[in-house]
Structures are given as C-alpha cells and as structure tokens.
Design goal:
Length: about 300
C-alpha cells in the first residue's frame, strides 16, 4: 500500500467533520441526538460552513431514505470512511431498518468509535439485540445488523475480508456511501475499490460527496489549506469536475452515474427547509457560500439501472 506518512492527517479530518456537524446540529440546522456522544465541544464555525454541512446532510438523508424506501428495507448499507457518522442510529430512531449496516474506517478511527459505543448506553442499545451478543475487540464491533470494522481501504484483500466477516449478501441491493473519503487515496487505489464493488455487488448504488472544480483559484486555496494540515489529496485528479467524478465510476465498470455540484443540489432541496435554515444565521457574504457550493458535488452511480431513479 502507498506511503502512510499522511494517514494521521487524514484521520484528523474526521475530527474536523464531526465537530462541524456537532456545531451545526447545536445551532438547529438539523436534528441529530447522537453526534454529541462522539464530540463534546460545540466550537462555533462560520455560517457558510454550517450551511454547507446542512446542504450535504439533508441531501444525503433524502437519497439514503429513498433507497431504503424503494427497497422496503430489503437492502444493505456500507459507509466507507464513516468516521463518527451517526446515520445508523438515526435510521433506528426513524424505524427504517435495513438487513445489514457496515462502517469501515482506519483502525485508528474505529477503535475510538468502538470505545464511544461501548461506554454510551444510547449507542450500545441500538447495536444490540436480545438474541445476539455484540462482539467487540479493539478495532471492530460485530452486532446483529451493525458492524464496524478497522481497515485500510487502499488494501482490497483486507476490504474483501472485512466485508466477508460482516455477513453482507452480495446479491442484495447495497448502498455505498462515501463522504469526503476517496480523495485521500490515489486514483489508482480508489478505482480499484470502485471496480471491486461493481464486480461483486450486482445491485449497488453509490453516493459520493466530494470536492470538484479544484482547478480554479478557490480550489487552489482549498487544496493548500489541506496541504498545510499535512493532508495529501492524492486523488484530486478525479475531483476536477462533475464530469471527472462521473467518469471515474463509468471507467470502474458502473452502469451509470450522475453528478451535480452543491449549487444545483441546493436548488433542489425542499423550499421550506431552505426557508427555515436561512433564518438561523445571516451570511456576511453570499459569494463565499456560492464558492463553497460550486466546489463540492454529490455523485451517484449504479450497477443496476433500477437505482438510476434514486435522485433528489
Ligand atoms: N465520512 C465521514 C463524515 O463525513 O463525517 C468522515 C469524513 S473524514 C473527512 C474522512 C474519513 O475517511 C476519515 O474518517 C478517514 O479516516 C477515512 N479514510 C480516508 N482514507 C482512508 C483509508 N485509506 N482507509 C480507511 N479510512 C480512510
């Protein structure tokens, strides 16, 4: 696997994402009663950042819920580079159960998540089942439906072994979710992963939230901010445009793909939600938010044409 000097900085991006989500939730942008078990402090972020996280959270919620609904829950979810994401607990609260739910991340992240789950009754209860004893070790948690596994996503044989241990069924419709993850791997490694998924899961749907349009001045600033923190965006070439995002899936053997930047996504969000959140904080500069929105995109891809209708 590639050099790992950068891994600590990549792992730290999860703390950042989790603390931004915590801040936006504390201000009322969306509801999440679990994020505070993973992040204590509510450090205030800029209004543009909060609104950016809101747009991403609500758009992904709509897509995930649609996929579960069209499958009547007879499906699985794999969250790639899940960090401290709380999606599993939200779904349980809303009664939207699925057949299997797997979270993958570096062992340095999953060990902390294991610890938080273990010591928090509200988190542990939702992964427990009367007839099934939760198995836990330092980096992995194996519940009846929920599995959390420490793995380096650049190592396909490791990923394959973890997926096998998770009792996923290759034939069931399966949603893969990656939020700001693939960009930290070289394009060679991420396409290997995407190819492996497409070859093994005949009915897969992918939601990828990631940067785009990195070639311009604002994109340069985003890249250098990450570099300053020691993060190498090894896969930035797939983030040049919505077209390169679509192409990476098609080249990896996916049957179809769509990609929209967050300006386009924002325009499709429920108007009443937009009206509500624009009241929470005033923006100093609409232009900064527009710049942010035009530098992130949601790409969806499918190996099964039935899922091409899962759209915002
Ligand atoms: N998806 C989460 C979210 O949106 O809150 C976390 C996003 S964080 C920016 C990126 C995550 O990807 C981190 O948790 C990091 O550890 C994980 N990641 C990146 N490269 C990885 C790799 N090669 N193997 C395992 N995890 C990786």
């Amino acid at each position: 696997v590639d050099s790992v000097g950068n891994d600590e900085a990549v792992i730290a991006t999860n703390d950042d994402a989790a603390s931004c989500k915590r801040c936006a939730v504390a201000l009322g942008y969306w509801h999440d009663r679990y994020i505070s078990y993973f992040v204590r402090s509510t450090d205030r972020k800029a209004p543009e950042i909060n609104r950016g996280y809101f747009a991403r959270a609500v758009a992904i919620k709509i897509l995930v819920d649609k996929f579960i609904e069209v499958n009547n829950g007879n499906c699985q979810i794999v969250n790639i580079g899940a960090g401290f994401d709380t999606l599993y607990w939200r779904l349980i609260d809303e009664g939207k159960s699925v057949k299997g739910f797997v979270e993958l991340d570096f062992p340095g992240v999953t060990s902390r998540k294991c610890l938080y789950i273990q010591r928090t009754k509200q988190l542990l209860q939702a992964v427990s089942d009367e007839d099934y004893d939760v198995k836990l070790n330092r980096h992995n948690l194996h519940g009846h439906t929920y599995k959390l596994a420490g793995v380096d996503l650049r190592n396909i044989s490791e990923v394959e072994a973890k997926i096998k241990e998770s009792d996923l069924e290759y034939s069931l419709p399966t949603l893969f979710l990656a939020e700001c993850v693939l960009v930290y791997m070289t394009i060679h490694r991420s396409s290997q992963l995407l190819k492996w998924i497409a070859e093994n899961f005949k009915s897969a749907f992918f939601i990828n939230y990631e940067m785009v349009n990195l070639g311009d001045r604002f994109g340069d600033v985003m890249l250098s901010n990450l570099h300053l923190r020691g993060c190498d965006l090894a896969g930035a070439e797939a983030c040049q445009s919505t077209e390169t995002q679509r192409k990476r899936f098609l080249d990896a053997g996916w049957a179809g793909a769509d990609s929209y930047d967050m300006l386009g996504i924002w325009a499709r969000l429920p108007p009443e939600e937009i009206a509500r959140v624009t009241q929470i904080e005033l923006l100093d500069e609409q232009e900064l938010l527009n710049q942010l929105f035009s530098h992130y995109a949601i790409t969806t891809a499918w190996t099964d044409h039935r899922w091409s209708d899962v759209q915002l």
